[in-house]
Amino acid sequence: MDMTNNIPNSCKVVVIGGGVAGCSTAYHLAKFGWKDTVLLERDVLTSGTTWHAAGLIGQLGSSATITRLRNYSLNLYKQLEEETGLSTGLKQNGSLTVATTSDRLEELKRQVTFAQRFEIEAKEVNKEEIKQIYPLINTDDIVGGVFITRDGQADPVGVANVLAKAAIQNGAKIIEKCPVKKILTKNNKIVGVETNFGKIECEFVVLATGMWSRQIAKEIDVSIPLYPDEHFYILSEPIKEIERSLPVLRDYNNCLYLKEDAGKLLVGIFEPNAKPAFINNYKVPDDFSFGELPEDFDHFEPYLMNAMNRIPSLEKSGIRKFFNGPESFTPDTNYLLGETPEVKNL
């Protein structure tokens, strides 16, 4: 990557943040003709929260637009692997979502209908088929499920690096170890950024700083409702009966997702009573890189019990790693896209 001595005096657009979102933005701007794009990363690429993302790749979204976007992403990763020669770690083993109530099954059936609109291969599966697809599973309380054949998982760091390399190949510049001290505005319009190594004049700034976005934007009186929660997962010890071709498993009634990870199982939760992160001052430290938060086993334990009920092998395997890291969310969990109302060209 380009290092700090190559900081330009000016450019068309500065992308702040070198996670998967920033790398993707830089790639797409350069690809569509804005070669004068500079991405600034305060530390190294993926060091915020991208590095510990679960890397689940689903094709179905909550709306037609999100579904199209997810399908576009899946195809893009395949294409960029070929163009860059780097690996995204993409495995399309499919995804299996199970229901333990008739209401949940009804919702999953609607997903199958929705998938057909987009020619996504999805089918309803009964208990016996679920057991065939996922031999490790306990189906006692399951009433049915849905299998999406071409869903999968990827390595988030791999995806970000592939996008970064493709961005550079298309003319963008990526500069690591270059924190932005201030976004510069004049008459409520972007005029540049101030870094630790000098100013860069620019017409546009893209804020792709994840959980830091709220506090960075607040300094120029822009409101960004994005806040990190504590996100928990465990990685089991190796399980000998596990198959590398195991699909991603989701069990919404128990707030669980599970994926195969090099002969081990990763078990994560998206729970309704999530814990907000950094509550001592509600500020994410500027130097939080590849950071983890303190363990809270009491919080995680009820979900782990659910996971052991769902996958009995987990009870015997033991836990290799207990992970807690921040993951940021908007109030409605949708993306924050587009120009801010307060500052033009941000």
Automatic annotation (TrEMBL):
A single cellular component GO annotation: mitochondrion
Gene3D superfamilies for this protein: D-Amino Acid Oxidase, subunit A, domain 2, FAD/NAD(P)-binding domain
Residue ranges occupied by any FAD dependent oxidoreductase domain in the UniProt entry: 12-346
One Pfam family from the record: DAO
InterPro entries: FAD-dep_OxRdtase, FAD/NAD-bd_sf
PANTHER family xref list: PYRUVATE DEHYDROGENASE PHOSPHATASE REGULATORY SUBUNIT, MITOCHONDRIAL, SARCOSINE DEHYDROGENASE-RELATED
Protein name as catalogued: FAD dependent oxidoreductase domain-containing protein
UniProt source species: marine metagenome
